[in-house]
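FORM 7B: Structural annotation worksheet

SECTION A. Query
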Amino acid sequence: MKKKPDAEYDYIVIGAGSAGCVVAARLAEQPGAKILLLEAGGTDKKLGIKMPSAFYMPLHDQRINWGFHSEPEPELDHRRIHCPRGKVLGGSSSINGMVYIRGNKKDFDGWEELGARGWNHELVLPYFKKAQKAEGRSTPHSFQGHDGPVATTTGQMTNPLYNAFLEATRSAGYPSNLDVNGPTQEGFGPIPMTVDAGVRASTYRAYIDRNPQQKNLTIATNANAQKIVIRHGKAEGVCYSQGKKLITSFAKSEVILCAGAISSPQLLMLSGIGDAEELGKFQIKTHSDLPGVGKNLMDHLEVYVQQACSKPISLHKNLNWFGKAIIGAQWLTSRQGLGATNHFEVGGFIKSDDQLSYPDIQFHFLPVAMSYDGKVKASQHGFQVHVGPMLPKSRGSVSLNSGDSKTAPKIKFNYMSREEDFFVFREAIAAARKIFRQSPFDEFRGKELSPGERCQSNQEIDTFIRKNAESAYHPCGTCKMGVDKESVVDSSGKVYGIDNLRVADASIFPQITNGNLNAPTIMVAERIADLIKENKR
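SECTION B. Predicted structure
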């Protein structure tokens, strides 16, 4: 399947990530079509990628992660926020937390209201189902897919803290929900993960690695896209480097950009698509004056509400070298046990205000008290919930630092620049504390570790948020789909002003979705792949 690149293809897909692997694999289903898939990183063979419980390891591995950081964020004490993005086959689906959340039905109805015609929930649901192979304990229903490439499963919930959390949510007055991707999102229950037979189900593994018969798909790894070749208002190919070689490959039909919410706008700008005035500062010739390129940047923030555990039952006991060795040995020999889960096995969604039409706060429960990226280790037995606003009002941007593709772009999220986001965050923390106070936790509850019992007033909580909020790693929106002046692509992903060029990744989201972004990104790729095929009929 991996062959020496030729000079000409029918399609060139830039980025072998959550979206690019899907688009390339689906286009390769066309008999006779030749596809080139470019990936800046290398293979996905690392143990830290394949083992679900080791998901924190790739977040700091610069060999498989772009390791971006934001500019100092004014409302977060001028901290530079880590923004990891996958640089490996599978992209961010190879380094994410594997949580499978589609978003709320009203998210997609809202997309259509914002000008993304044909993206309402009724029309996108078939693409969610097309991608999914649902397994696990959720009750089968008409929203699930069972024949798709991406396996989703639920955890075994062997730790008693999982059931304590779910019982506590019921005691606190919140509804139960066996499938938050089903007809109703609100409530708490098991959370699906993209894990297939104990191994991470990245889009590379699901769509390409398991489908070696696609002989018409060429994959070029360690291929850094320099720019899209544009002549007379038409995308003709891609200039990219492999080591010291500079290669230009041409596309007879289309170039499809799937480099993600940070790199897709950067590559458009480097190729002369963006705000003409800004491009001029870097002596870049403008091919399409689109001021919206890089604008509308959105992300989810979260904090940890942590509680000490009075019984030695949390995952803390498994985090020493001996415990990790046992987990690793079991996983290597059987693909089972604690190594086969991301540990985010339960969670859910609630409203910050009962007047809202759908939830805007998400919870991920973890039976240990430690940081998501593993940098801050568990110092004692504990448990925590990750909480934060799902529909933030704050908007940021991605812009160029230089005209050189090797230079990281300037990323400014403008986190918490709207007062409404602080209100939702306070409500999220209050709800987490309420759940942890319920009687099912009586036998396990120690002191509150974070924010801490002294942190009570709105001012104290806001200070805690400013000092501790972290990205949930869900950037999107920087090549907005729609019809207004900030829109970059139309409802089929076509870039305004340039023929034969589309964007198909999370950058085209008009509005961030309510939950983790991998599932809706895969859906977008599935649908745009179909639109590309229809365009050729």
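SECTION C. Observations
The longest strand covers residues 245-257. The longest helix spans residues 518-536.

SECTION D. Sign-off
Analyst initials: ____
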